[in-house]
Amino acid sequence: MAKIAYILLCHKDPDAIIKQAERLTAAGDYMAIHFDARANPVHFAAIRAALKDNPNVTFAHRRIKCGWGEWSLVQATLYAVESAVEAFPRATHFYMLSGDCMAIKSAEYTHEFLDNNDADFIESFDYFDSDWIKTGMKEERLIYRHFFNERTQKRRFYASFNFQRRFGLTRDIPSDIQVQIGSQWWCLRRQTIEAVLDFTRKRRDVMRFFRTTWIPDETFFQTIVRHVVPEEQIRGRTLTFLMFTDYGMPVTFYDDHYDLLVSQDYLFARKISAEAKDLKRRLGLLYAAENVQFQISNEGRSLFQFLTGRGRIGRRFATRFWETESTLGRNRELMIIICKKWHVAKRLLERIRQVTNVPSMEYLFNEEHTPLPDLGGIQNTIGKRTRHRRALMRMLFDYYETDQLIVCMDPGAIDLLQDFAGDRSITRMLEIQCEFSDDYLIGHAMRVGLAGEQTSIETLERLLPTIRNDMTFESDRIRDADFEHLDRMREAADLDDNARALARFLSITDDKARQIAEADYLFAD
Questions:
Q1: How many whole angstroms separate alpha carbon 503 and alpha carbon 495?
Q2: What kind and span of H or E run contains 188?
Q3: Which residues have CB under 8 Å from 5's CB, separation 6+?
Q4: Where does the pLDDT of residue 314 fall: very low under 50, low under 70, confident under 90, or very high at 90 and above?
Q5: Percentage, residues of the chain above pLDDT 90
Q6: CA-based, 20 to 30 A from 26: which of 52, 55, 104, 195?
Q7: For residue 329, is it left (φ>0), alpha (ψ between -120 and 50) or beta?
Q8: What is d(CA 353, CA 359) in angstroms, rounded to the nearest whole number?
Q9: Contacts of residue 323, Cβ cutoff 8 Å, sequence gap at least 6
Q10: pLDDT at 324
Q11: How far is residue 225's CA from residue 198's CA, in Å, rounded to a whole number?
């Protein structure tokens, strides 16, 4: 009978990880866990303590810090796989999972399925001929060297990329390797895993190549498996059910998707919402059940495409399929810095980045060139961002895998502020009230097209009171809106008052807030 060693890469939610490990190993299977070294060490200690007496659980022999799109994800997987191969000599299959995955079939069904299908299950499509990559870089992922994280070191990432492109610093793909691409959620037989590990030890040239490709978790195993296993022994599909929106973001499953999930021709599903308590309970009971007959309809993807294409016609399998983007998520915090002097807000944001790890963006609804990740086109223009603002923000939360996000907005965007404040998420606002000199107001008038280089002094003198009153009016509207979580920093206030406001806004200590707020240049013109 098949014995599965689950390879679990995770970085949060220790209680869910412990339950997942206990559930999967209770059926006689195994698990090797790599818990991100960047994550909370208290969480890792709790996981180790809870599972230390479970002989069917082991941990990667080395923990490393992981980053999306980096080689580190592949390396962490290899460390966990190596530990599993050594610890579990009876394991016949190795199944890649994340903390958001759950079984949608019983253990009995899963083992029987693998016994009846002597093959490797991994998506592996020709990198250049397939349309697996919908938008963004394609050949550039491979022929240039990527040393920096695109999410956390965006400027360095693109500076390095543009430098190489400008000077033609490309490289060749190893000549005997045909690069493949596909989902990182695979299930491989033991002999295949052993062949892959042997390949990594012998082919250092290929390892060096993949280490500096971008998003190698979508290409490394997919390529190497094709290189070491005959084609007839590979099923070019994953056994984990997952779907993506038109913008390339993964669909999340909730309590009312149970019947849909168990009817799919897959063994696991991703991503299961952390809020889907009842769904997790029912799937957990299902995995331990015996003699369950599954009616496989496999309609999930076509149904999703139909419902999203038709808008709100029909209500089968819950509204979330096509209404997911209408809310940011109940447990998420959107923090908005409101300031008319954009350079002041940007300086504050830079200070916040130095002290906290909260992802942040500048004036994305005002400046077209604001650096944003590729979200399938929704981020391309200010018009699209504004029309699909909640969808955009939700996608940014998902992209950065965070429950906190900071953005900057102009105080004139009262409609946006009210819309976000009305969401079920927690919306915190920090208004920065600045002093406006005549020189600043003249510069502002020129920037927004109210005046030009040839505008007379007399005209400017008549215009300045109107502009000043307009800025006061915008601030008054924010005050009159009576937002629930609104704090203020004032240029004229003392450091302690501003630090306290900042501490409430960011939910940080007064000392950290003071460290951010004490920058002398913060309010300078």
A1: 12
A2: strand 187-189
A3: 29, 30, 31, 32, 84, 85, 88, 91, 93, 94, 95
A4: very low
A5: 58
A6: 195
A7: left
A8: 8
A9: 312
A10: 42
A11: 12
392-412: pLDDT as tens digits = 898 898 888 888 999 999 998
Query: In whole angstroms, what is the distance from residue 399 CA to residue 185 CA?
Result: 18
Identity (one letter) of the amino acid at 229? V
Helix (H, G, I), strand (E, B) or coil at 291: coil
Statement: residue 240 has pLDDT above 50: yes
**In the prediction, which pLDDT does 312 show?**
39
Length of the chain (residues): 525
Beginning with the edge strand found earlier in the chain, give each strand of the sheet holding 102-103 in spatial order: 102-103, 268-269, 240-241
Tokens 């060139």, located at residue: 369
Mean pLDDT of all residues in 22-26: 96
- Count of CB atoms within 10 A of residue 104's CB? 28
3-state secondary structure of 315: coil
**H-run or E-run covering 489:** strand 486-490
Half-sphere exposure (Cβ direction) of 478: Cα atoms closer than 13 Å:
27
44 within 8 A of 18, measured Cβ to Cβ: no
- Beta-bridge mates of residue 360: 406
Which token pair is 60? Answer: 């990667």
Per-residue pLDDT averaged across 430-439, rounded?
A: 88
pTM for the model stands at 0.63
Residue 424 is predicted with a pLDDT of 83
Three-state helix/strand/coil letters over 382-425? HHHHHHCHHHHHHHHHHHHCCCEEEEEECCCCHHHHHHHHCCCC
What CA–CA distance (Å, rounded) separates 479 from 460? 29
Strands 240-241 and 268-269: parallel
Is residue 192 within 8 A of residue 225, CB to CB? The reply is yes
Query: In the predicted model, is pLDDT for residue 383 greater than 70?
Result: yes
Residue 44 has pLDDT above 90, yes or no: yes
Q: What is the rounded distance in angstroms from the CA atom of residue 348 to the CA atom of residue 339?
A: 10
